[in-house]
TrEMBL record:
Record protein name field: Glycosyl transferase
GO molecular function per UniProt: transferase activity
Keywords for this protein: Transferase
UniProt superkingdom: Bacteria
Record keyword Cell cycle present: no
UniProt key word Cell wall biogenesis/degradation: no
Length: 324
């Protein structure tokens, strides 16, 4: 965004001091800068933030949007200044499986553009536009690798129940073979004791550059996500997209049966959320490495063409701003 529209101003409710190529202003300065800099459009991400900006955190029956903040309400100011509001509704950020449809109606009524990578939202909000999660393919670039044993598996996620870690543990403990080695990334220290199969390497939390290097040395990215009414994972997850871009084969559940871009058996291998299915997929990979390599290559190719950060941002800007 900063590169393609250098006139963009960035705001945060809680500014951090990490590296960023532009000044990040406190949200408290938004109205002042909107006037002095003649802001015409506002873009934000996540349902609970756009609902906060619209001052619609609580429905008439008292239902409150999780994570929303009524003190961020700028709706009347946006109307007064004729500033257009745009948003992307990603999983999380208030968007769960049982999100009240009234919230989606509010967003549809008051936003000029709504992007999403969730099929449920596309169905319920006819005006919404599909855009996938973005990947920095310059960082997570494709790297050729030798497809031979031991097959390097990688699991990368934060410690949430919906990530299906117990399924991974159960399956890997039965995978008593030197043909596989598992790398675990994330805050899973407290769960490592459940592994009987000790062919694992625990990396903890890794920076993006470190993740890239690990992905480029691995063959298979495993995602065991399960349905969880408290949260809604996108498909594929951001971590899975990053790994695929480097050339990892994605082995994954698909709880919502998302078929918007990736096709089962062509770009990834689909599993059910049970031990037998995961084991079967891993044994198939071991016994069919040439086919496995082909699926991984096709997966990497479609990630680069459809999920590339620059392409997605360019498409979003075209929808939001046209030729302005």
């Amino acid at each position: 965004m900063h590169v393609q529209r250098p006139d963009t101003l960035f705001f945060a409710t809680e500014p951090y001091t990490d590296d960023f190529p532009a000044v990040v202003h406190p949200f408290s300065q938004f109205k002042e800068l909107a006037v002095s800099e003649q802001i015409t459009d506002v873009y934000c991400v996540f349902l609970n933030l756009v609902i906060s900006l619209l001052g619609a955190c609580t429905l008439p029956d008292g239902t409150h949007m999780p994570g929303s903040n009524p003190y961020l309400d700028i709706r009347s100011f946006l109307i007064e200044r004729q500033i257009r509001l745009h948003t992307t509704l990603y999983p999380g950020g208030g968007l769960v499986q049982d999100t009240r449809s009234e919230y989606l109606d509010i967003v549809a009524s008051h936003c000029s553009t709504v992007f999403t990578n969730i099929e449920d939202v596309l169905i319920k909000m006819k005006s919404s536009i599909y855009q996938p999660v973005v990947v920095n393919t310059k960082l997570y670039n494709y790297a050729a690798r030798t497809w031979s044993s031991p097959i390097q598996l990688v699991f990368c996620a934060f410690n949430y129940p919906r990530k299906g870690f117990p399924l991974l543990v159960q399956a890997y403990n039965l995978l008593n073979s030197d043909d596989f080695h598992l790398h675990i990334v994330g805050d899973w220290e407290s769960q490592l004791g459940y592994f009987i199969n000790k062919r694992i390497t625990f990396h903890g939390l890794l920076a993006p550059e470190q993740l890239k290097t690990l992905y480029q040395s691995c063959h298979v990215f495993i995602n065991c996500s399960i349905s969880d009414h408290m949260a809604l994972d996108g498909f594929p997850t951001t971590a899975a997209v990053d790994a695929m871009a480097t050339g990892c084969l994605l082995v994954t559940t698909n709880p919502r049966n998302d078929q918007l871009i990736l096709k089962e058996g062509i770009h990834y291998i689909k599993i059910d959320a049970n031990v037998e299915s995961l084991l079967s997929a891993l044994y198939w990979i071991r016994d069919h490495l040439p086919k496995t390599r082909l699926i991984a290559a096709k997966g990497a190719k479609i990630i680069k063409s459809a999920f590339d950060m620059k392409k997605v941002v360019k498409a979003k800007l075209a929808h939001m701003l046209g030729k302005r």
